[in-house]
Amino acid sequence: MSDTINVALPKGRLGERVYRIFEESGLGCPGVTDPSTRRLIFENPGAGVCYFWVKPSDVAIYVERGAADIGVAGKDILLEYSPEVYELMDLRIGKCRMCVAAKKGYHDSTARTLRVATKFPAIATDYYRSLSRSIDIIKLNGSIELAPILGLSDVIVDIVETGSTLRENDLEVITTITDISARLIANKASTKFKADGISRLVLALKDRKGSI
C-alpha cells in the first residue's frame, strides 16, 4: 500500500519498548516480537503500518534512503553520521552520555598531540576542534576502555551509561560532551507525501510515551 508507513525498529530492548507503545496504540502487527520467526517484514494493512527490525546503527540509513519512512535511532548515531533525516521527537529513553574518559589522575599536556581512542571519530573530532585541541584519532570498534590502560591512547570518547565499566578498570569521566537518548527520525520526502500517516504515529507515541 502506497500510504503504508514503513517503520525501521532497532533490534534489542530499545526497539521492543518503542514497538510496545505502537502496539498499545492499536498499531501492532502479529509476529513482530515472536523470537522463533524468520520473517523480516511484518505488515498490518488495516493499521497502515509495516515494521522491520534492523541493526541499530543501520536505522538512519534505511530512513535516509527512503526504505523506511520513520525509525528510531540514538542521538549518537545522528551526531556521528549526520544523516539527511528529520528528527521528530526525543523519546527520552535509552538515556546515556557521550563522554571523555581517562585513567584516574590523568592530566592533559597541551604541549603534545592528544591521542583519542573512539568508535565515534566525527563526534570526537568536532568536540576537540571546538577546543582548538590537536588530536590523533585512533578508531576502534570495541573494548575502547583497553586503549588508555595499555597505553594506546591518552583518553577515550565513548558512550557511558552507568560508568561501572570505567570504575572497574580504574578509569573516570573527565567531561561529558553531550547527553544521548533515542530519537524518532523521518525520511524528508515521507514527511511531505505521507504527512498524515506519520503524524498519526507521532501522536500515538506522544500519547503513550509516559509508559515507555
From TrEMBL:
GO-annotated cellular components: cytoplasm
Chief subcellular location: cytoplasm
Q: What is its EC number?
A: 2.4.2.17
Mind listing the UniProt keywords for this protein, alphabetically?
A: Amino-acid biosynthesis, ATP-binding, Cytoplasm, Glycosyltransferase, Histidine biosynthesis, Nucleotide-binding, Transferase
Gene3D superfamilies attached to this UniProt entry: Periplasmic binding protein-like II
Q: Which InterPro entries match?
A: ATP_PRibTrfase_cat (IPR013820), ATP_PRibTrfase_CS (IPR018198), ATP_PRibTrfase_HisG (IPR001348), ATP_PRibTrfase_HisG_short (IPR024893)
SUPFAM superfamilies membership: Periplasmic binding protein-like II
| GO molecular function term, any single one | ATP binding
Domain annotation ATP phosphoribosyltransferase catalytic: ranges: 55-206
Glycosyltransferase found in the keyword field? yes
The record's catalysed reaction(s) read:
1-(5-phospho-beta-D-ribosyl)-ATP + diphosphate = 5-phospho-alpha-D-ribose 1-diphosphate + ATP
The pathway entry for this protein reads as: Amino-acid biosynthesis; L-histidine biosynthesis; L-histidine from 5-phospho-alpha-D-ribose 1-diphosphate: step 1/9
Q: Where in the cell is it found?
A: Cytoplasm
How would you classify this enzyme at the top EC level?
A: transferase
One short Pfam name that applies is HisG
Please list the GO biological process terms of this entry: L-histidine biosynthetic process
Source domain of life is Bacteria
Function summary = Catalyzes the condensation of ATP and 5-phosphoribose 1-diphosphate to form N'-(5'-phosphoribosyl)-ATP (PR-ATP). Has a crucial role in the pathway because the rate of histidine biosynthesis seems to be controlled primarily by regulation of HisG enzymatic activity.
- The record's note on its domains: Lacks the C-terminal regulatory region which is replaced by HisZ.
Q: Which family does it belong to?
A: Belongs to the ATP phosphoribosyltransferase family. Short subfamily.
Q: How does it assemble?
A: Heteromultimer composed of HisG and HisZ subunits.
According to UniProt, the name of this protein is: ATP phosphoribosyltransferase
Q: Give the originating organism.
A: Candidatus Faeciplasma avium
